[in-house]
Amino acid sequence: MIELEDAGVVVTAADPGAPGRTLTRTILEPTTLRLTERRIAVIGANGSGKSTLARLVNGLRTPTSGRVRTLGMDVAREGPAVRSRVGFVFTDPDAQLVMPTAGEDVALSLRRTVPDASERAARVREVLARFGLADHVEAPVHSLSGGQKQLLALAGVLATEPEILVADEPTTLLDLHWRRVVDELLADLDAQVLLVTHDLAAAERADRVLVVDRGAVVFDGAPRAAVARYVEAMARL
Amino acid sequence: MSTAGLGLFQPGSTPLHRLGPGTKLAALAVLGLVLLARPGWEIALGVLAAVLAVAALARLRWRTSVRALVPVLVMLAALAAFQVWQRGWEVAVQVSASLLALVLAGTVLTATTPADRLVDLLVRGARPLARIGLRPEVLALAVALMLRTIPALGEVVAQSRDAARARGLERSPRAVLVPSAVRTVARAHTVGEALAARGLAD
């Protein structure tokens, strides 16, 4: 379960036009939410605050007001513990693939939970086979296609069997084929999934949809109504 | 020019692949000490020849490795020219051959050792540093990141070069270097975030 209690994010920066003065900008208005559904989608325009909301869930961003509790843990005080149970997938897989080859990257995720090297190697092969990457264990990451990289990023995150997965626009850079592959993968997961997306068809398949606009959750409810509300708001721009 | 192949693991079953990573790393350290302790162009050329023989034994993919080494060779050629001018040909040969031997030896190490095993070794080796607050896993991760970053930086530069060419700016170094630098810094920020998300920096 994910709980936001008046959680807001405000940033302060130096005012470039007035030395010595600072500007504050509200990225996310104080928000209260209790997210228990298995599939939650977050939609909204670019710069609306969707990604900030997503990053609050695993403590990559901590609230400047209020509190966020994920799986009963305060993300500001227990960030590492939260992140050990919450997986996060980014839009650009290149940013999160840190080892030279596919197998080594998945092995990196398993270092804490599977200390024995040969057992870890077997588990890596098993994980990559599950994601259709069995033939790419020793492939250099830079030689993989965009879709394969995103699958690998997902494999690395899901290898640790997180209880919640936050996916920040995981299919934005993918073609239709790979988008379908990733969507099906996410749909089959046992973990609770919070999906930030511009793909309205994917949003409609969620159990609950949040529409974020200018730092505020302006709609929270059934997918079809949420998407209709979002489309209407975009048409007015 | 692409450094994408440099340092990448090349699967195989040669004696070098079967040798433990600790032994290979120790040999690399000894090589460095020999070149420092016994300076001279004959020693440097001898060491380079020995490293080339070891690389042949490891069955390095020569085409990939040479292509990846081109930027290093270009740099060494410039360095050698400077040394010839400043200090004579013997010093030029000694410095260039020594550096090339060390780069090649490092390439043999990473080409015959999976990064995962290298990380294990570095974690074990860095354990004493935990007493002064340095986490062995973090140090090992930094080394692994370096191996991954080399080809990634190559891709960033290649993309910036293509973008400059598409805009007719292929003769402008600034049109390649500035976006490459900006994107590299941005990438460092997102990689840091991704590491934190995977719990690897905690």
Question: How would you describe this structure to a colleague?
Answer:
The complex is a heterodimer of chains A (237) and B (202). Chain A is 35% helix and 28% strand. Chain A has 237 residues and is of the alpha/beta class. Chain A has a single domain (2-235), classed as P-loop containing nucleotide triphosphate hydrolases (Rossmann fold). In chain A, strands 6-7-8-3-9-10 form a six-stranded mixed sheet, sandwiched between helices. Chain A has a four-stranded antiparallel sheet with strand order 2-1-4-5. In chain A, β9 (208-213) and β10 (216-221) form a beta hairpin. In chain A, α4 (102-110) packs parallel to α6 (146-158). The longest helix of chain A is centred in the middle third of the chain and has 14 residues, at 117-130. The radius of gyration of chain A is 19 Å and the shape is globular. Chain B is mostly helical and 202 residues long. Chain B folds into two domains: 1-113, no CATH class; 115-202, no CATH class. In chain B, α3 (41-57) runs parallel beside α5, α4 (62-87) packs antiparallel against α5 and α7 (136-166) runs antiparallel to α8 (173-197). The longest helix of chain B is centred in the C-terminal third of the chain and has 31 residues, at 136-166. Chain B is globular. The mean pLDDT of chain B is 83. Classes of the chains: A alpha/beta (237), B mainly alpha (202). Chain A binds chain B through residues 58, 60, 79-80, 83-84, 87-88, 90, 92, 94-101, 103-104, 107-109, 111-112, 117, 120-121, 138, 140-142, 156-157, and chain B through 4, 7-9, 11, 114-117, 119-120, 137, 141, 144-145, 147-148, 151-152, 154-155, 187, 190-191, 193-200, 202.
Q: Assign the CATH class of chain A.
A: Alpha Beta
The H-level CATH homologous superfamily of chain A, spelled out, is P-loop containing nucleotide triphosphate hydrolases
How helical, in percent, are the residues of chain B?
A: over 70%
Strand residues, percent of chain B: under 5%
CATH architecture of chain A: 3-Layer(aba) Sandwich
Mean pLDDT of chain A: 90
Based on DSSP secondary structure assignment, what is the total number of beta strands of chain B? Answer: 0
Structural class of chain A, please? Answer: alpha/beta
> For the largest beta sheet of chain A, what order do the strands appear in spatially?
6-7-8-3-9-10
CATH topology of chain A: Rossmann fold
Strand content of chain A: 25-35%
One letter per element, helices H and strands E, the order of chain B comes to: HHHHHHHH
* Anisotropy-based shape of chain A: globular
Overall radius of gyration of chain B = 19 Å
Mean pLDDT of chain B: 83
